[in-house]
Specification:
single chain; alpha+beta; three-stranded antiparallel beta sheet
């Protein structure tokens, strides 16, 4: 969806926690630079991905019981895809509340309010 100021926003509800999501390839190149200290454990993340996938049903169960929040994310690239995005993240408990927040956030961003 496009806001009043011309930015293309992507608003979504993340099904897995942000810590379980891999970095996009364009960010992995920057993270693997020797100057960054976080570049070393990146290959280990690919090894641990199957273990994290086994935890996903438990995460979804805890969200159904309203013990873990859903993460709502709005993302835009105001300076192009080669630069870091502007990311807004909100956490809310409850499935219906999270779906309503996605709609409300999309409407607010479309009006130009952040």
């Amino acid at each position: 969806m496009t806001s009043v100021d011309g930015l293309e926003w992507t608003v979504r509800r993340l099904r897995v926690p942000p810590s379980m999501l891999p970095h996009p390839p364009r960010e992995m190149v920057n993270l693997s630079h020797p100057q960054n200290e976080v570049g070393a454990p990146l290959p280990l993340g690919f090894v641990l991905l199957p273990v994290a996938a086994l935890c996903l049903p438990f995460v979804l169960l805890l969200r159904a019981l309203r013990l873990l929040p859903w993460t709502i994310q709005a993302r835009t690239y105001p300076w192009g895809k080669r630069t870091p995005p502007v990311v807004l993240e909100y956490q809310v408990r409850g499935r219906e509340e999270s779906l309503r927040l996605v709609e409300d956030l999309a409407a607010e961003l479309e009006c130009g309010r952040r």
